[in-house]
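Input:
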Amino acid sequence: MLYFTVTTISILFLPTTLLASETVSTQAFNIPDTLWVLLCAILVFLMQAGFKTLETGLVQEEHRSSVGSKNLMDLVAGVLGFFLVGFGFMFGTSKYGIIGFEPDLFVGQNLHNGDLTIPGIVFFLFQLVFAGTALTIVSGAMSGRTGVVPYFIGSLVTAVIIYPLFGHWAWGNLFYNNNMAWLANMGFMDFAGSTVVHTLGACVGIVGMIMVGPRIGRFDHEGKPKSMKASDYSYSILGVMLLWIGWWGFNGGSTLTFTADVFEIILNTNIAGASACFSAFFYCYFFQDRGDLIEKMMGGALTGLVAITACCNVVSPLSSLIIGLLSGVIHNVGYDLILKVFKLDDPVGAIPVHGFGGIFGTLCVALFGKQELLVLPRWEQLLIQMIGIEVCVTFTVILSIVMFKLIKMFYGLRVSPEQEIKGMLMGRSMPEEYYDVEEEMKVR
Amino acid sequence: MLYFTVTTISILFLPTTLLASETVSTQAFNIPDTLWVLLCAILVFLMQAGFKTLETGLVQEEHRSSVGSKNLMDLVAGVLGFFLVGFGFMFGTSKYGIIGFEPDLFVGQNLHNGDLTIPGIVFFLFQLVFAGTALTIVSGAMSGRTGVVPYFIGSLVTAVIIYPLFGHWAWGNLFYNNNMAWLANMGFMDFAGSTVVHTLGACVGIVGMIMVGPRIGRFDHEGKPKSMKASDYSYSILGVMLLWIGWWGFNGGSTLTFTADVFEIILNTNIAGASACFSAFFYCYFFQDRGDLIEKMMGGALTGLVAITACCNVVSPLSSLIIGLLSGVIHNVGYDLILKVFKLDDPVGAIPVHGFGGIFGTLCVALFGKQELLVLPRWEQLLIQMIGIEVCVTFTVILSIVMFKLIKMFYGLRVSPEQEIKGMLMGRSMPEEYYDVEEEMKVR
Amino acid sequence: MLYFTVTTISILFLPTTLLASETVSTQAFNIPDTLWVLLCAILVFLMQAGFKTLETGLVQEEHRSSVGSKNLMDLVAGVLGFFLVGFGFMFGTSKYGIIGFEPDLFVGQNLHNGDLTIPGIVFFLFQLVFAGTALTIVSGAMSGRTGVVPYFIGSLVTAVIIYPLFGHWAWGNLFYNNNMAWLANMGFMDFAGSTVVHTLGACVGIVGMIMVGPRIGRFDHEGKPKSMKASDYSYSILGVMLLWIGWWGFNGGSTLTFTADVFEIILNTNIAGASACFSAFFYCYFFQDRGDLIEKMMGGALTGLVAITACCNVVSPLSSLIIGLLSGVIHNVGYDLILKVFKLDDPVGAIPVHGFGGIFGTLCVALFGKQELLVLPRWEQLLIQMIGIEVCVTFTVILSIVMFKLIKMFYGLRVSPEQEIKGMLMGRSMPEEYYDVEEEMKVR
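Output:
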């Protein structure tokens, strides 16, 4: 009887769905897949909060407000830029494999389902938060001396041009299966974006970082790095945890379906994060200067998560453990390299995490992936992975240089030294004696 | 074919559920709808953390503990008040359309499914966190000078009388479709609560704010506002992000089903939030005093989210963009109006966000809604929307005046000036030299 | 019959699943159950962030970094330890009811489904975050004077031996229904872990707390507790809210299925948390020293949540209200008892919350449970509950003593007094004049 009732309800139910969808879309969708990807989009959105928390904890007290503001503004840039044209450029019908172009997908006019089993809007939301992640990596790399407005312009350009273009090459066939996406067609595998999201973000970040220059007081006269006080490590650790949670969705949702694959992916993600945190902590503890211990512990965990992102669907849990252990060490070495050899001022350690971790993870697809899950024989796969990384780095670096040059020329990138020292004087957060309306008006 | 598959799946799905439900409830429920609304309830619960974070960042250092405590206590008031009687008053069988009354729904005795496809308890949980949201708006408006106990009493009264009564009029037919709910029956449309939750909360807040008076030192002798140092803007931005995530559930779950509507609703919500943040930031940047830039950026985003709340199910993504852009400007103008013209001390900017945003959003239903989705012709709809707002404001303001008068008379609303200046001396968070047990005992 | 149904469902479902699952697992799973438990695992993971936030807010400014680091490192210990062998010890085929042992479950080699309707990996992930919760309780209890490395070793031992062993006795039959788990077979009921997770964590914590001794300056010469400044109560309240949200999953997911039970469980959880917060606040307000008001309000809420954990599936909402009200008072009394009578230095109040709350909740199964849902007649049930608690306490305390003795002997537990006073000098978070590389190298 009950069984019968339930059955009747279910049957009666579906009409409601359909009626409602009339005005929106008459396309059907797979319910479990949709619920899962939507949940994952929410988790990836949470990563915005994670990045903000991580970054504000790592910069000095007086820059917390401006770094936080940039994190919010790049979310805005991501949402608007990707909504207006970015999504259409990335996933629309391909023009010669170079760029997508489909007016229906611009300004959310008709976000249909493409070839997916989930609604087009859910796919859009999921991709949107991915774009937001790529953008927000940059805010960390350039924090503490870049103005909010030039940063916003840079984010917008990245969201409408740089990210969708490279994204089209590597992932352009996700929405239409037969869309031309030349890197994907060559066999380049980047499951959830070690290269597409992380390495790309790091490349924009490193160009920005070099062009804006180091913070005042970061290096002494001989070019040796000086200690700059982080405002609150504990707050940053909250950020790491939020990011870690978000990664369940970042990797787990990239299947775009709710299948048995999802679970092993999430398992691998967690194992890699934990083992990378472990190796980074103890490598630093025993072999490096402990003054950076907390930075390395946190960055290590994130590097493991970044690295597993490309390969979590093709490696075993045991391989994930090994990838994680290596990632932690790679992060620590990369961290010192950036700071002490290249003498770049990366306030939140974005480059070792997203750049080194992203590249390493993309290579791990070929190095650790189960052969039967790879597109090509292992060594060919490795070659193609290297080509993909190379293309990403070259393309992104060139476009970023052009972009930042133009911003610098027409607007200026950096705040004035007074503002940098006092904190970017936005809002009333500084002691009143520092408050100076004239100075305030010069904030860029 | 897909339709057929989905139907088959739904039918085959149900047996598992049934076995377990024997002891609790023999009523059936639709699984995807239930999973979705439950997930949304969790997201709305997260908004409590968002409000707390937003508000504590915006008040001065010495008031962080007391504002946080109030946020926790109003959650408690909401849960208990709504559980004991509020839910029954709001959704129970209507008495003459004025108030619901159904003992089964009191004290969670028998939270049956009503006419819903989801379990009554899940509907209760979802509504519960909505009530909590309305209450918590008040804590921000009155922060920095109101005692915890009088505030708790006010929250409890709001949760058991003010919110359920007006809620009954506007939403009383959600649980029983044919329940008399006079505003809803007239055609008043407030999808997820721009009026029911936000305007109502703002009205209680503005009355409380006026009756408790401005904080010491907020205005100078000539009545001009003086700068008060926010404790941590960056922390508030975390709050904005958590709220934004919560809004996916706040609006997305208000369908109470998992249909294709959900996706466009969430899309609209995000677009409105982002565009409002954009317009508020740049409007302030170019046309207003930049001293409040961060407040306006954050408040702008939230105003867009509040405004889209009423209309996200009837407008297009493009309209959402426009609604958002307007919301940002409305917020900024409202912010200055409250502070500089009305000279009210609204420490966290609750009134421009929830009051102005709520009213504007409720009107947008008629102004931007697709005609075929409106209950009435556009101009009649607009009239009814205005009537609904008018009823909400009048009713809430009158009851709030009575409530706060009584609290003031029998208990007192405001802490002593010493406590206000030193921070409300709860807990051991102040330097020991300030610690004074006698003073402590006077904390209200 | 059920088996058959599930199988049928799974089969019909699988077409999508199968293609992908070939290499991972060919086992079927119930989709709604799986989605739900996975969502709950995510929520419980969020509790790691909640604990971190709660604890760092309650310790002094200079210990925030080290407490946060410990929270991250015990997550790492939990993930690695449980992944390598802990899960196999806890849920593998039982050896004489003492310990599970199944190489397939070690190092995630083959996390099959056991007798569950959800994938083995999802069950692993859910159990993993439970183990993490037990570990993190210890970090609070020992905060402010314990080194990170000895703490990490302790966490690892707890994750691979103490937690899995006792867990095997109480929950060893969750994965294989006919696995020998002697406490469960006797009728011991601990639905979501008041004893298995919370009391166990508290027991490890209290042993650690005693062996490491109180923080410098916690008690005066006469042994009276002195006030120690918490770094940020407001931040801790955020932690309480995150924990509260996480508890929806902690209790709601412990059904391991998505049935009607879930909803009443979540309802009960919320009611108990709110009423405990209410009673703790007002009991302290009217009858105790208000100097600890915020600690007691927060701890009260958590105690209610801990207490309802064991019994949320067998009590009514009204009983939950009563259990909550009692929990708040028990917490407050326990708090004063630990501090003033036993003179233990429990910086974040872990023992009254998890110890007292855990024991009380386990007893509530028999005291408040509906008889028809209990395994045994009420008084026999009560006896068995007491036996279970007794076993947990005795076993855990003995093993913890051995563990901490060994760590103390071979490595040392406590940091040097200089480090304790200045904060554990990890990272660059202290003022530069305090920065001393030699001192740094002694950090344990």
